[in-house]
Design goal:
The complex is a heterodimer of chains A (248) and B (260).
Chain A: E1 2-11, E2 14-24, E3 29-33, H1 40-48, E4 55-60, E5 63-64, H2 70-74, E6 77-80, H3 92-96, H4 109-122, H5 139-151, E7 157-161, H6 169-186, E8 189-193, H7 197-203, E9 206-211, E10 214-220, H8 221-224, H9 230-237
Parallel strand pairs in A: 3-8, 3-9, 6-7, 7-8
Antiparallel strand pairs in A: 1-2, 1-4, 4-5, 9-10
Helix pairs in contact in A: 4-5, 5-6, 6-7
Chain B: H1 2-35, H2 42-53, H3 57-79, H4 88-126, H5 129-135, H6 140-178, H7 183-193, H8 196-222, H9 227-258
């Protein structure tokens, strides 16, 4: 279980998070929604230690993440980045098996390659792709390779940062389906950031809406459409009128 | 009021400069401590050695050859005023191994390598590849900075040693073909009067310049701002700062090595 307790983060005068409280139960798929620039990615980066919060505590299974041993802590996570963030200088299979080729999870090269090809197959890519370089792939394929890399070491927790941004509706549907399948199959805890409502409905068990630096609403996906929260209502229906200013 | 504004702007510039020196020093300190702590990425180190050392050889070699040739012509023309044409081999050799070999080699490598390192790491930063490295339990400083800094520090002296030989041969070629020097006499003069400290001091300089080049490339890449403009600026800053630091440290090292 991941718990965010009163998280604050500011960049100069810009206060991005002003007291985020959120609990993500183990084995559940939590989707955080909210407008652009509301601090969704910062929330996620705070958990991973890529950004240090100014105030507040983040607990993973009851343990303060700042006190955790860094390598062991990160070994529990997998992450799909918005743009894929594949390493240009490495081939596709080396990207997927990155964690298996070095560090505490190091395996023999042949075994790591085999696992990488298996993971590529799992995300619908043929073994022929393994020796290509990221620049030779389409956006959708890069996203799938990123997904394969995120799951390669079979992490307990997987983060997805805008998994369908920049993809056509069909490819977005494929990625959503894959994420749902993989999370269910692995029994992993998932945290997804998106403002694509189709993704939300396909991926989420629970939804949290971030606005003005705090969680405005959180609840099961089934309650999202019947909620009376004006912020959530405006956001999920994409209305210009409402408490959220259209021009920010 | 104008005076106050002027002083405030001078103060801001000084604070900015001191801040930058502090940030670079902390970055360099962190990089140095990571050199001695595992894990070590040998494959990345070998790739960096190949890229920084081997692939810089043509540009350093050509620079050294033409500089050696030009130096021979200049010294011959200047020496003729004092009937001292015979010092051409010695001055070419000393000039190449003590000063021009390491400094010009360092500047050429700064143009080629610092720019490329800053662009590569800067692009990795703006495309979140650096964050991805961290989430994959790999320290960016260890994986990206340490191999490049170690490779540049180790390969620059080798590169400059080869450049020195090529530079001396440039002077020899011009001396023999254009200035009517006897080939054997030219080589004997070069070997007889050149001292080992002349060579060693140049190679120490080269190692320092290699460290500076890689450090500036990595520092500016890691601190690149977002977007294409940010990466472009990081690349320019890496080359400019590496070049200025090479020239400044060259003076300091020369003062240390040769002041009476």
């Amino acid at each position: 279980m991941i718990e965010l307790l009163d998280i604050h983060k500011a960049f100069g005068a810009n206060k991005v998070l002003t007291g985020v409280n959120l609990t993500i139960p183990s084995g559940e798929s939590m989707v955080i929604i909210g407008g652009s620039g509301t601090g969704k990615s910062i929330c996620l980066k705070c958990i991973l230690g890529l950004v240090n919060p100014d105030q507040g505590t983040i607990l993973l299974d009851g343990q303060d993440v700042e006190a955790a041993e860094r390598d062991a802590f990160l070994a529990r996570f997998g992450m799909l980045f918005q743009g894929g963030a594949l390493f240009d200088s490495l081939s596709v299979w080396q990207n997927v098996a990155f964690r298996l080729l070095r560090g505490s999870l190091k395996r023999p090269k042949a075994e790591a390659r085999e696992i990488a090809i298996e993971k590529l197959r799992r995300v619908g890519l043929s073994p022929d792709v393994a020796d290509l370089f990221p620049a030779e792939l389409s956006g959708g394929m890069q996203k799938r390779v990123g997904l394969a890399r995120a799951i390669a070491a079979e992490p307990e927790i997987i983060f997805f940062d805008e998994p369908t941004t920049g993809l056509d509706p069909i490819m977005a549907g494929v990625i959503n389906e894959l994420i749902r399948e993989i999370v269910t199959e692995m029994g992993a805890t998932a945290m997804t950031i998106t403002h694509d409502m189709t993704s939300v409905r396909a991926i989420a068990d629970r939804v949290a809406m971030l606005h003005d630096g705090v969680i405005q609403w959180t609840g099961p996906i089934a309650d999202m459409d019947t909620s009376t929260d004006p912020y959530l209502d405006q956001f999920i229906h994409g209305r210009e009128e409402g408490p959220i200013e259209a021009v920010r | 009021m104008i005076l106050l504004n002027f002083l405030a702007s001078v103060g801001r510039s000084c604070l900015g400069l001191l801040g930058a020196i502090g940030r670079v020093s902390i970055f360099a300190g962190q990089a140095i401590t990571h050199i001695f702590r595992p894990p070590f990425y040998f494959k990345e180190l070998m790739q960096a050695v190949l890229y920084i050392g081997y692939f810089s050889l043509p540009v350093v070699g050509l620079t050294a050859f033409f500089t050696g040739g030009a130096l021979a012509l200049q010294i011959y023309a200047g020496g003729a005023r004092f009937n001292a044409e015979s010092v051409v081999p010695l001055i070419v050799a000393i000039g190449m191994v003590r000063e021009l070999g390491p400094v010009l080699g360092g500047l050429m490598v700064a143009g080629r390598v610092a720019a490329s390192i800053a662009a590569e790491i800067g692009t990795m930063k703006v495309t979140e590849q650096i964050d991805a490295l961290t989430t994959l339990s790999t320290h960016p400083m260890k994986y990206l900075t340490v191999p490049r800094v170690v490779a540049a520090t180790l390969t620059m002296p080798i590169l400059v040693a080869i450049g020195d030989v090529i530079g001396v041969m440039g002077g020899f070629t011009v001396g023999v073909t254009r200035l009517d020097f006897n080939a054997a006499t030219y080589l004997n003069n070069t070997i007889d009067f050149l001292e080992s400290w002349d060579v060693i001091s140049g190679l120490i300089k080269a190692a320092v310049f290699g460290f500076i080049v890689a450090m500036m490339g990595c520092y500016h890449g890691m601190n690149s701002a977002r977007g294409a403009q940010g990466v472009g600026r990081a690349t320019t800053n890496a080359v400019v700062s590496a070049s200025v630091l090479i020239l400044a440290s060259n003076y300091i090292l020369t003062e240390l090595f040769f002041s009476a």
